[in-house]
Amino acid sequence: MLVAVEAHSLDGRRLRLPSELEGERNLLAVAFQRRHQSDVDSWLEQFAELERGNRDLFTYEVPTISRRWAPVRGFIDGGMAAAIADPKARARTLTVYTDVDRVRKGLCLPDTSQIAVVLCDRDGVVEWLVRGPSTAVAARQLGVAINR
User: Fold this and answer.
1) 98 vs 25, 58, 113, CA distance in Å?
2) Third-level CATH fold of 5-99+122-146
3) pTM exceeds 0.85 for this model
């Protein structure tokens, strides 16, 4: 279950997750470490394709950062926003400064060593989850889960 957290988009909106996610179904790449960005990037082309083909599906990148970094949120988020030229990508990147372990436990993850790609509804009910970068097998499984 995706636990309730406050998030800020890189275009300046404040949202409560998962209830204020835009889609009936939502696909999230939840990252826990800076080095995870390449794993997130490996999914983005498929995310865009799935979003185009499914009106009720919205996709997001969700960097999940320890709340101890919240005092420098402006600096961290500003750096991320400056690195992302596409306004749509900034809007769908939602930073969360929280108790990372609470998020990890809510998703039943053994640790935060890999990203979690999560298909969920606005209630936070997880329909599908995989860890790590995109692979042919995981991409096929995600396609099946989306089209159920």
Assistant:
1) 23, 23, 17
2) Glutaredoxin (3.40.30)
3) yes
